[in-house]
Amino acid sequence: MTKRRQSAVSRVSEREFAELRQAAVDKFERESLERAAKIHGPSVPELTANAARRSTVIMLASRVAVAAMGWIGSVLIARSISPEQFGQFSLIFGLLGLLSVITDLGVGRVVLAKLVESNPWDVSLVTSAFISLRIALGLFGYVLAVGYVWVLGYPADVVEATAIAGLVVVVATPSHALSVMYQSRLRMTYVAIAEGLGQLVQLIATIAAVLWNPVLVVLVLPAVANEVVAAVIKIRGVRKGIAGPRPSSRVQFRRWREMLIEAIPLSIGFAFVTLLSKVDVLLLGKLDTFDSVGLYTIGYKFADLLSIVAITVVTPVTTLLVSAWPDQLDVFRQRSREAFIVLTLMGSAALVAFWPAATEVLALLYGSRFAAADTSTRLLVLGTCFSMLTQLGLMVLVASGRHRTYPWIAIGGLVINVVINLVLIPRMSFNGAAIATVATEILLFAAIWIVVFRTLPVRKLFPAVPFTIISAVCAGVVVLGTLCVERFGIPWLAVSLVAPIMMIGIVAMLPISDGKSLTSLVRPRGGNA
């Protein structure tokens, strides 16, 4: 009897011990999950249209400020050095921009879909692999940049300046990976602050360089300082968990292969499009003079403003498109159409403001010798209006996983662009390069949206009626504004201020989409609208 009682007591003790052990395990796991929630933040980000609009407004304000400060810096540099030196300066940064073919590879757009998923631990591993991959790509790009100018026998000061300016690529490439993390959570405020403060530091350093020692090697240093400051601020936000799950301390290099393979079509296409956007500067530098390069690249200062607008609008919209595909096709269509109409309107407003006043604006900002670039600058701004819509079309394809045909479009555009440049640059110098750019951008725009129309199972993605109406109104206001300045002697500043207001006012009164006015299309909605 005693043995039975002891056995029963023993079984009860074992059962109680097992229950206590399980309770301890459950408590540990619960506390671990709570700590993870505090560290990583919510597992499901707030991916709503209102969040996207907030990100767009914040980033647009930041990038307008960044562009203004960058513009002031470029004006100071253009006025402080000779035309040949400014051409060398433009060539260096044109080359570094071209290196995004190597340093980006389109991987960020593919990784975005992985970062939107709700598993914080997997996201943490993806981000660490993504950042390490971009560090490697940045170092590789730096070697290519310095090697290019050295092998082709550029002057020693150009090689030395490239070796310094190339540090921009080393820092900016992984820094962009951090921006993608913020984008996946639509938390772009930190990115806006980082870019704004970085550009402010660059402007202050540029002013100091111009006053102290305006030579090529010194003038490239502020751009490096810009990227370092921006990267430090982004890192601080990531460490706080603002950009979502923190990157893991363990890097899974096997994920590099997965990322690169998934991004191959986009990488190839993006590589050729980047080549397309920069090859005109390199061809002009070889077929013409550094002075022509300097005059031509001034046009890109204005075109880049529209590119900033496009990136600002498309970045949060891409996140919404990724989250809506393929379960919410109506939302997918609505977001893409809204973004298309907004980009068309913004590009048209910029065009009607700038086209009539191009000559006077160039002379005022950069000096009378740059007024010769008025035609090429107008054309580059026009080409960027189409490029904005092409970029949106590409993101629609990326979000839906239909970007396989993109490389063929990009290759065709690059071949056409090079051929036109080879024909026109010897005959028309930088104006020929601008014509080649516009023609290529129009072809790319048409091609990308034809692919969208043919491959996506979503009707009415391309807002043909709004595009036609806005384009027609834009053309009419451009002609009227140009006549006012050139024929009737109306001050260009008044025309530049009134023309976009007039165009937007006319468009706002018209039912541009399914009987709806512009105001109803862009009016914020509550909740997840």
Overall strand count? 0
Overall mean pLDDT: 81
- How would you describe the shape? globular
Query: What integer value in Å does the Rg equal?
Result: 27 Å
Question: Between the first and last Cα atoms, what is the distance in angstroms?
Answer: 74 Å
Assembly of the depicted chains: single chain
Quick structural summary:
By secondary structure, this protein is an all-alpha fold. 81% of the residues lie in helices and 0% in strands.
Describe the overall structure.
This protein has 529 residues and is mainly α. The chain has 21 helices and no strands. Helix content is 81%, strand content 0%. Helix 13 packs across helix 18 (406-455).
Secondary-structure map:
Layout: H1 2-40, H2 49-80, H3 83-98, H4 100-103, H5 107-115, H6 120-151, H7 156-165, H8 167-184, H9 189-212, H10 216-219, H11 221-239, H12 254-262, H13 264-287, H14 290-324, H15 329-354, H16 358-366, H17 374-399, H18 406-455, H19 464-486, H20 492-508, H21 518-522
Provide tags for this entry.
529 residues, mainly alpha, 81% helix, disordered C terminus
